[in-house]
Amino acid sequence: MNILITGASAGFGEALARQLVAKGHRVIGCARRAEKLDGIAQSLGEAFFPLVMDVSDTESIEAALAKLPADFRTIDVLVNNAGLALGTEPAYKAQLDDWMRMVDTNIKGLMALTHAILPAMVKRNSGYIINLGSIAGTWPYYGGNVYGATKAFVQQFSLNLRADLLGTKVRVSNLEPGNVGGTEFSNVRYHGDEEKAAKVYEGFKSMSAEDIADILVWLIESPAHVNVNRLEVMPVAQTYNGLTIAKD
Ligand code: 8X3
């Protein structure tokens, strides 16, 4: 299978690319950082095609896809993984620029990739889109404001795609992870404050990028007549803790 992964230079994307190539699949790894992709390409060989792409630059996406060589052109699976959380402040203290950047990548980038790749899947009557949502798309939490709202978009967009794809064999899943440690995601979320980011993952066992990649591989290799609509996954240590009340 040919699997296109956005955000393939680190985190879930890189872990998934490595697992898929080890299992004999071919991967188109998309990211902004050419040198990171080249490093991965060197270790994975010809089964990994590095494609430099900034998903937030939606106009450049078609041009990047046009560069794919013939044997990577048919995309069997699109993994819309690129995404970021920026800031953990409440809405009244957040930076507008952070909000706009999350919308550009998490929503507009995911829409643009889907728009570019879905028509060919429908034409072939086969294909699979896996979106990376988040528990934040369902459960509100302090500081989640726009990040959670972008993931709520991803969840509902995924379900609406399912509705549009009635009668086709094209599948869509929304994978909704909770707390995952050891990736760049948390450093970005805390604007590069590594100490603060590290503290979030202290004292319990969070999930790892490998855990998420394992689930993605399982989804990709699931039978073609089965559609996982949504899949929410958390470390055991993370759970629901009810609503809260501020007393006067
Ligand atoms: C992020 C989920 O639990 O780290 O998508 O806030 S969590």
Characteristics of this structure?
single chain; about 250 residues; alpha/beta; Rossmann fold; 7-stranded parallel sheet; 8 helices; 7 strands; about 15% strand; globular; binds 2-hydroxyethylsulfonic acid
Please give a structural write-up.
This protein is an alpha/beta fold and 248 residues long. It has a single domain, classed as NAD(P)-binding Rossmann-like Domain (Rossmann fold, 3-Layer(aba) Sandwich), CATH 3.40.50. It has eight helices and seven strands; from the N terminus they run E-H-E-H-E-H-E-H-E-H-E-H-H-H-E. Strands 3-2-1-4-5-6-7 form a seven-stranded parallel sheet, with helices on both faces. It starts with a strand and ends in a 15-residue tail after the last strand. The relative contact order is 0.14. The structure holds 2-hydroxyethylsulfonic acid. 2-hydroxyethylsulfonic acid binds at residues 134-136, 178-179.
Summarize the structure.
The protein is of the alpha/beta class and 248 residues long. Helices cover 41% and strands 15% of the residues. Helix 1 (11-22) crosses helix 8 and helix 4 packs parallel to helix 5 (145-164).
- Globally, the shape reads globular
- Output the CATH homologous superfamily: NAD(P)-binding Rossmann-like Domain
Distance between the termini: 59 Å
Q: Bound small molecules, which ones?
A: 2-hydroxyethylsulfonic acid
Q: Within the CATH hierarchy, at the fold level, what is the topology? A: Rossmann fold
Strand composition percent: 15-25%
